[in-house]
Design a protein that fits this description.
By secondary structure, this protein is α/β, with parallel strands linked by helices. It has ten helices and eight strands.
Length: 300
């Protein structure tokens, strides 16, 4: 059974002025339910992750500033959000949803978090709408619990996963692969284990050619026993922030290829959704829903 972490707080943590980027978190499950692709049984609501687990990834001083709502105004502006207790709870629930998804992935091969992909959060900073790094927290959880020994993070969001890269910079058990827009946020990049910066206007053929040549080699070389996939749809040509020229069809083909590689190699995969900022919310929701459609066709 496909299990998907979703909680209403994913979509409603913010004042109205900040809500547009969050609308997709209620529209995606609504669309999948409407199509009959999933039922309520597929959805689960995670609890907040524990402070102990947060501190396996994030520095204590930074976490306490989030928890106690004492993050400086400058650091709050860096996140893009006004800090609130509800926002911190949202991040804690997203992180636990990704951890829970790992357990479901071991059981069913794959699991999703409707939110997540908060890859700009480093060990001691928040940035770019990310406060706590859900996939990094989950990766450290798997390592700490002895549930995985070699992890591959496949980050195909249009923005480099700088926070994830910084967190695992000196950890050989986690290989970070980021394929992203070269001239895009974050403008100060960290160094992933493998970075593939793409020029502006990269289109379908080039994007898919690079991915299909790279990922199978990485899997063969690294032999991961768990994969985290960040499936951002801000690679779309319609995206306001992306600068690439990828179609919805090629974005779906991207997901198809990544998930086929996971299934072919019998590697459990947890998927977090990442970014999407197209002007028309329908483009964002459709591209994200395609990721679920591909997964259900492949696995179920």
């Amino acid at each position: 059974m496909l299990k998907i972490a979703f909680d209403p707080i994913y979509a409603h943590p913010l004042p109205e002025a900040h809500r547009f980027p969050m609308l997709k978190y209620e529209l995606i499950p609504g669309q999948l339910l409407h199509e009959g692709i999933i039922s309520q049984e597929n959805l689960f609501s995670p609890d907040p992750v524990s402070e102990e687990i947060v501190l396996w990834t994030h520095e204590q001083t930074y976490w306490e500033q989030l928890r106690d709502l004492t993050l400086s105004p400058k650091d709050q502006r860096r996140t893009g959000f006004p800090l609130s207790a509800r926002l911190v709870e949202r991040e804690l629930r997203i992180a636990q949803g990704t951890i829970d998804g790992c357990h479901y992935a071991f059981e069913y091969g794959i699991a999703f978090n409707i939110a997540g992909g908060t890859h700009h959060a480093g060990s001691n900073w928040g940035e770019g709408f990310c406060l706590l790094n859900d996939q990094a927290i989950a990766a450290n959880y798997l390592l700490k619990k002895g549930l995985a020994q070699s992890i591959l993070i496949v980050d195909l969001d249009v923005h480099q996963g700088n926070g994830t890269t910084q967190i695992f910079e000196h950890n050989p058990a986690v290989f970070t692969f980021s394929m992203h827009g070269d001239k895009n946020f974050p403008f100060r990049k960290e160094r992933s284990d493998l970075d593939i910066p793409l020029p502006d206007d990269t289109g379908d053929e080039e994007f898919l050619e690079i991915l299909t040549k790279t990922l199978p080699k990485l899997i063969a070389q690294q032999k991961p026993d768990f994969i985290f996939y960040l499936a951002g749809v801000d690679i779309l040509a319609t995206d306001k922030l992306g600068k690439l020229k990828v179609s919805k069809e090629a974005c779906k083909a991207r997901d198809q290829f990544v998930l086929e590689q996971c299934k072919l190699n019998n590697i459990p995969v947890q998927v977090s959704m990442g970014g999407g900022y197209s002007t028309d919310i329908k483009d964002i929701v459709e591209a994200h829903c395609n990721t679920y459609r591909v997964a259900i066709d492949l696995y179920f």
